[in-house]
Amino acid sequence: MSSKREAVYPSLKDRHVAITGGAEGIGAALVEAFCRQGSLVTFLDINDVAAEATLARVAEQNNASVRYRHCDVTDTHALQMTMRAAIDSWGPVTVLVNNAANDERRDWHEVTGEHWDRQMDINLKQQFFAIQAVVPDMAQAGGGSIINLGSIIWKLSGGGLPCYSTAKAAIVGLTRSLARDLGGLGIRVNSVLPGAIMTRRQIERWLTPGTEAQILAGQCLKRKLVPADVAPMVLFLASDDAGACTNQNYVVDGGWS
């Protein structure tokens, strides 16, 4: 669902936007939002059922240009080959949104080496290798925008998610490092740090009356935040209107952190 406050950015029309984890939750909201801007949207995911539902919703928009590509982003070779196929199909990706993530809960004493590696793969490693895959063509096209989705969880010192919190904190370092490395190529790199966004996954797996009360008590804004609340910030950072914005972290959390 679109926001009544959603701005229109002419610079996003016909721009090739790639979004990882775009089948549901925040990713699906981003797919729909960029389609409303007239962008050429490629989204990656492994959830084919959710992806088909997102495609069906987008199909209701007039002249939406969107393609879904099944891809396990933790498979680095598959991720980079999928990005290559998307570029060969629609030209350089000039907006990359690294959204794919997994916030599986596990106490620190239950973390195994295998679990740690898996969480780093899905929450951190794939962001770097998606960037590596698109940057050469993005630079040749004259530049672009990379937006890495992080989280406020590490700012809150939240327990029970040691791997996820570590990876999300590292995204800030990744963003700032690559903003410096890629700035000379005309490529902006920023991160967006959402708060407690009420996706279907969050509601079904983690939300209880107690946790909901805790979230609302922590936020300055006393309402549930939804995926559509994140999209306007990402749209702005992707657009030419944010042409002087790079190397920054933008928080969308209702005033919690």
Number of domains: 1
- Give the strand tally: 7
The description of the largest β-sheet is: 7 strands, parallel
Shape: globular
> Strand percentage, roughly?
15-25%
Q: So what's the CATH class?
A: Alpha Beta
The overall pLDDT average reads: 93
* Helical residues, percent: 40-55%
Report the C-alpha radius of gyration, rounded: 17 Å
- Structural class call reads alpha/beta
N-to-C SSE string, H for helix and E for strand = EHEHEHEHEHEHHHE
The CATH topology is given as Rossmann fold
Would you identify the CATH architecture? 3-Layer(aba) Sandwich
CATH superfamily: NAD(P)-binding Rossmann-like Domain
Q: Can you count the helices? A: 8
Strand order in the sheet with the most strands:
3-2-1-4-5-6-7
User: Span from first to last CA?
Assistant: 26 Å
* Poorly predicted regions: none
